[in-house]
Amino acid sequence: MLSERRLEVLRAIVQDYVGTEEPVGSKALTERHRLGVSPATVRNDMAALEDEGFIAQPHTSAGRIPTDKGYRLFVDKLAGVKPLSGAERRAIQSFLDGAVDLDDVVGRTVRLLAQLTRQVAVVQYPSLTRSTVRHVELLALAPARVMLVLITDTGRVEQRMVDCPAPVGENTLADLRARLNSRVVGQRFTEVPRLVQDLPESFEPDDRGTVSTVLSTLLETLVEETEERLVIGGTANLTRFGHDFPLTIRPVLEALEEQVVLLKLLGEATDSRMTVRIGHENDHEGLNSTSVVAVGYGSGGEAVAKLGVVGPTRMDYPGTMGAVRAVARYVGQILAES
Amino acid sequence: MLSERRLEVLRAIVQDYVGTEEPVGSKALTERHRLGVSPATVRNDMAALEDEGFIAQPHTSAGRIPTDKGYRLFVDKLAGVKPLSGAERRAIQSFLDGAVDLDDVVGRTVRLLAQLTRQVAVVQYPSLTRSTVRHVELLALAPARVMLVLITDTGRVEQRMVDCPAPVGENTLADLRARLNSRVVGQRFTEVPRLVQDLPESFEPDDRGTVSTVLSTLLETLVEETEERLVIGGTANLTRFGHDFPLTIRPVLEALEEQVVLLKLLGEATDSRMTVRIGHENDHEGLNSTSVVAVGYGSGGEAVAKLGVVGPTRMDYPGTMGAVRAVARYVGQILAES
DNA sequence: TCTTGGCACTCAATGGTCACGAGTGCCAGA
DNA sequence: TCTGGCACTCGTGACCATTGAGTGCCAAGA
Fold it and tell me: What biological function has been recorded for the protein in this entry (chains A, B) (predicted)?
């Protein structure tokens, strides 16, 4: 087990390295932190920390930098979540309050988060599967063509074209609209398939084909949109990554363009639990030198989606975690109000 | 006026420089192109081209690279639009055909364009002001709360919350919905304000407040959404910019995150006319070493929005222009079908 | 047993010198 | 007007010495 002082040395190394972006040596450490011991003692501690794999040397005659394992210990044991200043909180609130619709909320959130953390921000749209139905609308565009519009309690709207096997009467459509809504409004999306299962049977035989077609499009929409929509922003912050970043930045940008990777990135964060993935803890190879801080947000007590930031492993964890948490809370509030 | 051969030399320089990314000298030129003259002659031509400002030397003992003015001449006079191969055309078609809704069309387009040109792609959503109304839906969410949903002929959907001054009866809402739709469906968005102007007067005095509120939200939506939505992709391609790009890539990424800048970028491209903005021809300072190739696309004969790519001034103009034009055409077709 | 000062050692970074060679401009001759 | 020849420029890369931050280890002290 590591002694108290060695943990203190690790904390100092992480803080200095995050600040200066340069390997930190024993002498500099004792000068910048009141450790109460001499550089030689710190060197011994450093050697021990290196043996345990918490820090490493880029080359023999250089200072030490934290390893992924070192950051992990720092985040788990040594660092808290730094609360935002009052000014920052007010800025968040006023920035988000101006939003006019869901797209706007998400757009503003991503910009806000990127600006606040000076890193890349990722925000997921409220998930369909965890939302409830607010309304289903059916519009006849042509005799055998129907537009299906799906509205969620979080304000998200999805639409689909439906080509029907036969012309649809306005009465039939109105009938279907009414019955469909009476069954599904207020229900969770996951319940919808069960709730509409027997609906075609209650229609005239002539209309059953059409009804089935519309319903199956509806169900398809639910499935497809389970692959959630994401918005990212602040990619310009990637340029602050490091000096050598031609090789670093490329795979990160590539990873950020793949929905699948991004979704995995946000991972199993929940409303209450913030996740921090550090360096190699990310499955994706291109993200081996980045860390991800993510948390769920929701309109009620429950998370409907996630948001987070992606930055270099060498990031200000307490500050970033504070910003992510605060933004998630405010977005949750905004959604609950709408 | 420049002689025929000097233009030929310029063309060769542009082609070689685009290929190799290195300044090209007189000797290499005569070896790689059948100019029929000696290096010494080419040197004279180069000196002339440099006097005219079409090419420049990074330093005394280096080859020449084209200037913005040189690329301009190349694009205007020396290069055509390179048509895509059959395989490429088929790939475009099959890739876009799988799209399920407008979001998907736009998303696929941006990925396709980025992949095809290996540059950053920008696609604008079909503009509201140039579209026509397909349907307006009003939903009562609470006694005094209405959701307004606006659907365009290009499949775009916008929604807004409306807080009414007084509770709204379902009858009133149905009435308003019907009258509103009968007036505006099939009309251009720019016409809508005129068409609904006198609508409140035809309602009972009690309901006029509500009707006015709903209508003013509708009009607001039209105005707000005139600032169009854009999607970008392929930012990872920025890493192929050059060797020195820490300084180059930063302002580009920043510029790409600003809607306003992007919209200006797509500029006055129209359906028929493709625009090419080279280097300093872009107003935005961060984009001084990039070129933009943009063109309008539309469901009918008319452009409803624009798309394009952003890349280094040193780009393959004929190929890029070919890809941009082809993608715009296919997207237009897809939209016309939906 | 832990801490400390001293000391020799390592090695990246810095800067200077030098040879190389791609590329140029200019000129005289065809 | 084109061409071959030639002297000149200057960025590049190799080589080398210097410097200094940082280390590991050891012996002495608390």
Answer: Negative regulator of class I heat shock genes (grpE-dnaK-dnaJ and groELS operons). Prevents heat-shock induction of these operons.
